[in-house]
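Allow me, if you will, to draw on your knowledge of protein folds for a short while. I have a record of one protein: its chain in single-letter code and its fold written as discrete structure tokens. Kindly check, if you would, that the fold set down in the tokens agrees with what the sequence suggests. Thank you for your consideration; the sequence and its tokens are set out here:
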Amino acid sequence: MAENKIRIKTVYILLWCILVCAGVFIKTGMMDDLWRHMYDLIYGDSANAVRWSAYSGASRENNIYCYMDFWEDQVKEMCMDGEDFDSGVDVSCGDSGVSYADAEGSAGGENGADGAADAVPGSGDDGTEEEAVSGDGGSGTAYADQDQGKQKAADPAEAIPVSAMNDITSSYIGMDSDTLRSYCYNITYPDCVKNDELDAASLLDKDMTLDMSTGGYKVLIYHTHSSEGFADSRPGEVDDTVIGLGEKLADILTDTYGIPVYHDTTEYDMMTGVLDRNASYDYSREGVAAILAANPEIEVMIDLHRDGVPDDVHLVTDVDGRPTAQIMLINGMCRDEAGNDVDYWSNDNKVDNMAFSLQTYLAGRANYGDIMRKIYISTSRYNMDLMPHAMLAEIGAQTNTVEEEQNAIAPFAAMLAKVLLE
């Protein structure tokens, strides 16, 4: 009898010690390190990807973090009593294995991230929606006729025609869905996209041509992860981040192709003053929605990022003798890994989004070869439900140089113009 009491007391003491230790681990953040070490022991370092930050230093994040963030967000979703809430994690598994693409949400939590981010302190909550509604767009730059700022946009009636580019879409029109999958897509979870959504004829037949007769801005460029930088980015130099890429893309679309562009430079991943990629899609959703409401003539929105890959991966090709970062487009299907629709990530525009990315991908393949990586199909949404012609583009990755990134923008602009003007 005495021995039984001793055993019971011993069990109680052990349970108490376990609870106390767990509380200390969680309170101090040591649990995160424990998860990380456990994950490394099971899967090894090869499963990890590196996410860089030019301003806050490099930090390593594992897949387990993506899932932890996802489930944390799901708890928030339940507690928000049905409020619209985009999960904060997104893992893109690109052509060269797992690639962290920018904290948005993937299967089972968007499974990862769609690019890392490097940040300069943002303008806070008072620089997005109110200014965007007024037409200033927070800290954005609008390329069109305005009382203030430089005039960048050509008269829509005098738009410069796109120079002749090869077209290979006709050879894809008759493709069955399985062949289209293998030729054009990288799909981590095959059930995430349905065969009837991969109807080549339907996707390639959709008219993407801009209506230039309405005036106003036609394209919105923004950056959910505005602070993403590159291998040789200079600390604190905005031109060396994806914002610099967006600025060059806006210049070329406007000056060369006559497409008026609104470039939103709001630092959505720094809205609280510290780098936060989990909440950045919520912030960009609010800011972009306000810009679209204030500028109803906008027909295209492009969320411009760079990918995050293992640091031994270099996404580079040669275009006209110049080292050029490769480009990956992403579509979010708002489904889980098993292909079930996720109600709080609904997107009625997903097929139009897919048509836009496929036509752009094929224009790129026809004219610049392997500058285009396969289109990545994700489980999440990326705020692409806000507009039929919405795109998320990853230009290179953190291992590319600024020069390689900048060299990719003119080809990217040309393929966009091919789709939007012809």
About this structure: Confidence is low (pLDDT under 50) at residues 42-139, 143-158. The CA atoms of residues 122 and 374 lie 33 Å apart. The radius of gyration is 23 Å.
